[in-house]
Design goal:
Number of strands: 34
Largest sheet: 8 strands, mixed
Shape: globular
Strand content: 25-35%
Helix content: 25-40%
Number of helices: 21
Strand order of the largest sheet: 16-21-22-29-26-25-23-24
RNA sequence: GCCUGGGUAGCUCAGUCGGUAGAGCAACGCAUUCGUAAUGCGUAGGUCAGGAGUUCGAAUCUCCUCCCAGGCUCCA
């Protein structure tokens, strides 16, 4: 009777009766697994537990505490939410409801153009709990194209999906249907049926550890020109603990939000008088920024860069020549028209200025490569809804440089450049990277095929020799050149796109930039754009979040605070400060007119790396009490020289008190 | 730009049915002189984002504008 055999993930084989389902397999393996099972993976494809197993299949039972299991239960939870919404708003249209990272969403259009409010989330959640309590089965059915259209005739978005799958499916739509020819649906009750490829959990009772997070607007098909739907985001997990852990993690992330820390640590602010995306840096943020910029400058000097400067405003002619006005006018601040009829623009980038510097006189191949660096402040008219803290602003300073070189020099330049980039990022404490290479777009691209191929190969070779993971973004380059970008993972595992290195085959051509080569003829230079921080503001934001505000000592605005135990220790505290200041350490003294505990507390909240406390013993023996950030165990009787040496070493090494 | 929510003291927030503004922290003053995360008392601080409207009366209701948050779109 055992006429069906399947293979389990551990390579073992198992015999089952003909027509056995995934669920039968789970039962045969063990009661516990059968109880846990949510779905199955058959030959790499996720299916319902009730689906019959083909002979010889590789089968894995999917349980809740796995990525695939969570995906299934998140998707099922989205269906439950859709049902809840249709119960509460009869006639609501539902569009798409996939599982996403940490949860799910579903897009709706409510009758009469109604909108969800935040209060509705609680109502919907309550209704969802009822549905979970009702232990409704997820029942799969398959229909023909025509039957599908009939079934969903009251659901215009579903009709559109069915039709578009018929006429050439997108990834997104395929997720909704079994295949172009079969319309699969899942129903929970006679009243609720959804178009879906599946799989789903066996019953709504298997769900329950979810929370609706927020309501948002989202365009149908992600298209700005199409109707805006009401999207509800939720998070869903396999257990109460997992849900709570996720919510706690969100709180932790919020605590290290650079906007919050920027306020708490008095680094910068966004005065509403200035408008969206325009920041001012306070003294402490200004110090942090200065340290970053000074370090970057000194490294660029070592790497053979020349320092240039360019104005913030220019006649329109420059951006007409560069072509930016043709394709980027929307992203620029509108022109200022002056008396003579000239239009002047704020610069949204520095590149054309640097090309003009290159062109200021005739160039010889002997001068190349020329590397021009500028902390260039640019202004971009970001949409008001797009600005975000320091990471997406309307005015920012790029650590921008352009390298003009010959084609022969290109490979060496790219190699040393990538090394430089990674070194610099490591100096700021980021060390978990991967690279992304965006290659030639199919349709339209300037530059010769060989140039592209050579640039791409070089970038790839350099990336590989750096020993880093390389993700290909085929066809993702700009039309004017390939790009490599460095993605960095921060302390809590988020990735940020940081540095970009971009080849440009176009701008030198538009500006007719050239150099005289050994053959005594004019040749076109290759231009490399690159920014290591991206923008100083954004890089600072990423570092603040990476360190949760506990900046390494060299970057801390105040490195040491000296506190006398009583006010008769204040003059010794001042002496200590003066000694350290002579070595360039940023030290402040807070006079003893408040209890020591209160002053220590304040300094701790300000995340100052070292709090130095001096009292009778220290005055008598020329010593210090050192309270390091991150430690609850202050040291007593440290000599000034010892502390000074330690501190200077830590600053030079870009280390932190926590690292000791 | 679009959707939802929000804007009350420097900060975090409370403010009921529309009846004339509150707390904690911070600041300032005085006292306290203290050895590692909050000393006590007191004082001052407000065009309730801005404007218009409804009302005898508006932080509270309506409309407009600005700014913020989370999304969507966008990010050369």
């Amino acid at each position: 009777m055992s006429d069906l055999e399947v293979q389990l993930p551990d390579g073992s084989h198992r015999s089952l009766h003909a027509g056995a389902t995934a669920n039968d397999l789970a039962v045969s393996i063990g009661a516990r697994l059968a109880k846990d099972a949510l779905a199955a993976e058959v030959n790499g494809q996720l299916v319902d537990l009730v689906s019959a197993l083909p002979n010889g299949a590789r089968v894995a039972i999917v349980t809740p505490a796995s990525e695939k299991g969570r995906e299934v239960l998140r998707h099922s939870t989205a269906h439950v939410m859709a049902q809840a919404v249709t119960r509460l708003w009869p006639g609501a249209h539902y569009a798409i409801g996939p599982a996403i990272r940490d949860g799910f969403y579903y897009d709706f259009s409510l009758p009469g153009g109604e909108h969800f409010s935040d209060d509705d989330l609680a109502r919907i959640e309550a209704e969802m709990r009822k549905i979970v309590g009702e232990d409704q089965p997820f029942t799969r059915s398959e229909y023909s194209f025509e039957e599908g259209l009939e079934l969903f005739k009251d659901q215009p978005f579903k009709v559109e999906i069915i039709q578009s799958v018929k006429s050439g499916a997108s990834e997104e739509d395929l997720a909704e249907l079994a295949s172009p020819s079969v319309v699969s649906t899942y129903s929970n009750t006679p009243a609720f049926r959804d178009l879906c490829r599946g799989p789903h959990v066996p019953s709504t009772a298997r769900l329950g550890f979810f929370k609706l997070m927020r309501v948002a607007g989202a365009y149908w098909r992600g298209d700005e020109k199409r109707p805006q739907l009401q999207r509800i985001y939720g998070t869903a997990w396999e257990s109460k603990d997992a849900l709570e852990a996720h919510l706690t993690q969100l709180e932790e992330a919020e605590k290290r939000d650079h906007r919050r820390l920027g306020q708490e640590l008095d680094l910068f602010s966004f005065p509403s008088e200035l408008g969206p995306g325009l920041a001012v840096f306070h003294p402490k943020g200004g110090t942090m920024r200065r340290v970053m910029e000074e370090y970057s400058r000194s490294r660029h000097v070592e790497e053979g860069y020349d320092f240039v400067n360019s104005p913030h405003i220019t006649k329109s002619e420059l951006f007409e020549t560069s072509g930016h006005l043709d394709w980027y006018a929307d992203g620029m601040y509108p022109p200022m028209e002056l008396d003579d009829g000239q239009n002047y623009y704020l610069k949204p980038m520095n590149c054309p200025f640097h090309v003009l510097i290159f062109k200021a006189r005739q160039r010889s191949y002997r001068e190349l490569p020329i590397r021009m660096f500028e902390f260039g402040t640019v202004y971009r008219y970001e949409k008001s809804g797009a600005v975000h803290g320091l990471t997406r602003v309307r005015g920012m300073t790029q650590d921008d440089a352009h390298i003009f070189c010959t084609r022969d020099q290109m490979a060496d330049e790219l190699t040393s450049l990538l090394t430089f980039v990674l070194d610099l990022l490591r100096d700021f404490g980021l060390n978990d990277f991967y690279l992304e290479l965006s290659t030639r777009p199919e349709k339209k691209a300037v530059g010769t095929l060989e140039e592209w191929r050579e640039a791409e190969e070089t970038l790839e070779k350099v990336a590989n020799s750096a020993g880093l993971e390389l993700v290909m973004d085929e066809g993702g380059g700009a039309f004017y050149g390939p790009k490599i970008s460095v993605q960095a993972r921060d302390a809590i595992g988020r990735t940020h796109q940081l540095s970009t290195i971009q080849l440009d085959f176009q701008l030198p051509q538009r500006f007719d930039a050239s150099f005289i080569a050994p053959d005594n003829a004019r040749h076109r230079p290759i231009m490399i754009h690159r920014a290591l921080f991206g923008s100083v503001e954004r890089f600072m934001a990423i570092l603040i979040e990476h360190y949760a505000g506990n900046m390494p000592t060299w970057m801390s605005p105040e490195q040491v605070r000296v506190l006398g135990v009583r006010d008769d220790h204040d003059s010794y505290a001042q002496e200590v400060a003066t000694t350290l200041r002579a070595d360039g350490v940023r030290v402040e003294v807070e006079l003893a007119n408040e209890p020591l505990g209160a002053r220590i507390r304040r300094a701790k909240l300000e995340k100052i790396p070292y709090i130095v406390v001096v009292g009778d013993d220290d005055v008598a023996h020329d010593t210090l009490g050192v309270n390091s950030r991150g430690s609850n165990d202050p040291e007593r009787g440290v000599t000034i020289d010892d502390f000074r040496e330690r501190l200077l070493k830590e600053i030079a090494e870009h280390s932190s008190p926590e690292a000791r």
